[in-house]
Structures are given as C-alpha cells and as structure tokens.
Amino acid sequence: MGTPRSSSQAIDGDFVRRWIRDVAGEMSANRDYLTQLDAAIGDADHGINMDRGFSAVVTDLAVAEDLGPGATLTRAGSTLVNRVGGAAGPLFGTWFRDAGASLGYGPDADAEDLLGALRAGLEGIQRLGAAVEGDKTIVDAFVPALAAFEKTLRNGGALAVAAAEAASAAHDGARATVPMQARKGRASYLGPRSVGHQDPGATSAAMVFAALARTAAGPA
Fold it and tell me: What phi, psi does 11 have (nearest 5°)?
C-alpha cells in the first residue's frame, strides 16, 4: 500500500520559474562569496560561473513561459550545461535536467513528484561525478536535504515545510564540509590543505534549496 500524498500544492511551470529566478538572485548576491570559497580550494571562478549561468537561464526561460515544470527544469539544465564553466555546469545542469526528465511533460506536479525529481537529480550528479557523502562536494548538501524533504513528507508535512527542512539540512551539510578533506574534483589535488574550507559547490546547492523553500512558502 502506498504512502498517502501529504501536500496538494501544485508545482507548475510558474512555480519552477519563480524558483529559478530566486536562485539567480541568490547567485548574483553571493557571487563574490562563492568565488572566495572557490579561491581557497579551486579555480576562483565558481561564483562568476554560477551567476552567469543562472542569469542565462532566467533570460532563456523568459521566452518559454508556456512550459510545464518538467520541461522548464530540463531546459534550465541544458542551459546550465552550456553556459556554466568548470565542473559546476555539468553537475548543476544534470541536476536540473534529470529532475525535469523525472517530472515529465505534464502541466503540474506535487510534492511527491518533486521528491522523485530531486532523487533523480541526485542520482544524475552521483552518476556523473561518482561522489558520495564525505567527499566534500555538492553531494554533502544534497543528500541530507533530500533525506529531510522525504522525512517531512512521510510525516505528513506540506511542501512548504518539507522544502524548509530540506533547506536547513542543506545549509548544515554545506557547513559540515569545512573539516573534510576533499576526495573529488579540483580540491582533491590539495590533499590535507583542503581541510578548513567550505566547499563552494555544496554551498551553491544549499542556496538552491533555500530558494526552493522561499518559493514553496509563497509571498510573505
């Protein structure tokens, strides 16, 4: 017997576009911060690339307002792959693109559908980067966020509550990368010198979940 769906809030194309616009604003506001994080253990371009990529996504989606949530995420992912440099483009692009493919081409979805989409996005990231928790990557924010989202839904929580719990878990997951030694990506080349720095990819992932929480909460 399946678990009852816990939220009837519709997730349509407009919801996804508002989410992505919020992400773009977050990346723009934190461009220098993300670049500083990346300067310590990477190529010092993460903030620049994320800002540029999500700005391009917003511009592209402005002429695609008739798309449903799945198609919107898929299109956003493709733009990120093409416009974001470094490892972030393929990783974040795969996240959005695989999440969109999971949602399909219907006009709307619900919280359970979004859970499946987020799970597909995580699987895509791990398939591409072969990272697990503890490797000091985007996965360290994504895994706890997904677990919190699912736990809240299973306990009967609404979409807004699940998204807020996911955002909090993602933030904590990103902070937890500070004492880790990187085992994947550019930062892994530093060995023990990567310890003591927060991973920029995990930080960006936490920002994406924070934007999802604000979008799900609706207007203040």
Answer: -110, 105
